[in-house]
């Protein structure tokens, strides 16, 4: 059972992660280029850290392949997240990402021996209902929300995989190989992006501000916070991570309104759907607590 300080650390991570779409919105280069530079910087920095701390990061070929594959999933997740932010805004992106808990509920039985958890499914379904309310209105960023939900699917897969990897490997080892896999994966698809959008729109010369913000993403979010999450997942379940992550829109929307002002303002249906998604954070622990009380009373 996770301790209170581990939950506090998790909330701290989610609070900081809610600023990612805001930072991305301020970067002028394309999504694939952001991920390419971010993962390149992170890979080199973590390798230096592993060398300084003398951490043995050797793994067998099968594990290496799995780590690289999870890195590619991470790259897809980040590219979709950036695209969602670019074509919509930070608030829309964060609400779409909040559906991750539902996808974790569906994917977890595929990676383990357990079945579908009813309470996880119920609370995850709240997120989908909230998204339905948003989509059913005259919401102008439907494509952006759809891309953000697609990002949430890949984010859920990454979270589950990291939960398994965290049990067997040092968190910096996992971070290094995943960042390297994400870098190689994003570099491999750049020609594909260029064939569709042209090289002039795929590789745009970054400004000094762009490089500084990408470096911030690499050092703070790709190394420090990412490694913290992997370490915490030795004791905290993937579903708990994504469920607490549903609070990210609360922090992010408020921050985005402060930073970007009127451009982040949404209609009433958006906020109604977002509130339903937020309440899923409270619903899961509450239903689990009530269920445990019923079991105790029936079996005194």
Provide an overview of this structure:
This protein has 300 residues and is mainly α. The chain has one domain (4-298). The chain is 80% helix and 0% strand. The protein has 14 helices and no strands. Helix 4 crosses helix 5 (90-97). It is globular. The two termini are 22 Å apart.
SSE arrangement:
Blueprint: H1 4-17, H2 20-25, H3 31-52, H4 61-87, H5 90-97, H6 100-111, H7 118-136, H8 142-165, H9 171-197, H10 199-202, H11 208-232, H12 238-245, H13 248-260, H14 268-298
Short description:
This protein has 300 residues and is mostly helical.
Task: Give descriptors for this structure.
300 residues, 80% helix, single chain, mainly alpha
Helix content: over 70%
- Biggest sheet descriptor: none
Please report the total strand number as a whole number.
Answer: 0
Total of helices: 14
Query: Looking at the structure, what is the overall shape?
Result: globular
Q: Structurally, how many domains make up the residues?
A: 1
- Mean pLDDT across the residues is 79
Oligomer: single chain
Give the topology string: H per helix, E per strand: HHHHHHHHHHHHHH
Low-confidence stretches: 295-299
């Amino acid at each position: 059972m996770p301790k209170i300080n581990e939950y506090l650390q998790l909330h701290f991570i989610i609070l900081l992660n809610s600023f990612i779409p805001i930072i991305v919105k301020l970067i002028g280069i394309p999504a694939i280029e952001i991920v390419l530079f971010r993962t390149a910087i992170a890979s080199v920095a973590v390798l230096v850290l592993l060398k300084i701390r003398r951490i043995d990061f050797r793994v067998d070929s099968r594990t290496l392949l799995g780590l690289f594959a999870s890195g590619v999933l991470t790259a897809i997740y980040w590219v979709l997240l950036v695209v969602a932010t670019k074509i919509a805004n930070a608030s829309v992106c964060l609400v779409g990402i909040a559906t991750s808990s539902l996808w974790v509920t569906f994917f977890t039985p595929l990676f383990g021996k357990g079945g579908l958890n009813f309470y996880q499914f119920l609370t995850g379904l709240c997120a989908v209902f909230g998204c339905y309310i948003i989509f059913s209105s005259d919401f102008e960023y439907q494509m952006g929300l759809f891309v953000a939900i697609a990002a949430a699917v890949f984010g859920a897969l990454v979270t589950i995989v990291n939960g398994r990897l965290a049990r067997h490997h040092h968190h910096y080892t996992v971070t290094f190989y995943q960042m390297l896999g994400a870098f190689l994966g994003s570099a491999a698809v750049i020609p594909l992006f260029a064939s569709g959008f042209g090289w002039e729109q795929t590789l745009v010369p970054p400004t000094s501000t762009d490089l500084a913000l990408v470096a911030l993403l690499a050092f703070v979010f790709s190394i420090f916070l990412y490694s913290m999450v992997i370490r915490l997942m030795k004791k905290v379940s993937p579903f708990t991570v994504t469920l607490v992550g549903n609070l990210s829109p609360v922090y992010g929307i408020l921050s985005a309104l402060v930073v970007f002002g009127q451009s982040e303002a949404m209609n009433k249906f958006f906020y109604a759907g977002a509130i339903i998604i937020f309440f899923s954070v409270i619903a899961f622990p509450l239903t689990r607590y009530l269920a445990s009380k019923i079991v105790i009373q029936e079996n005194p």
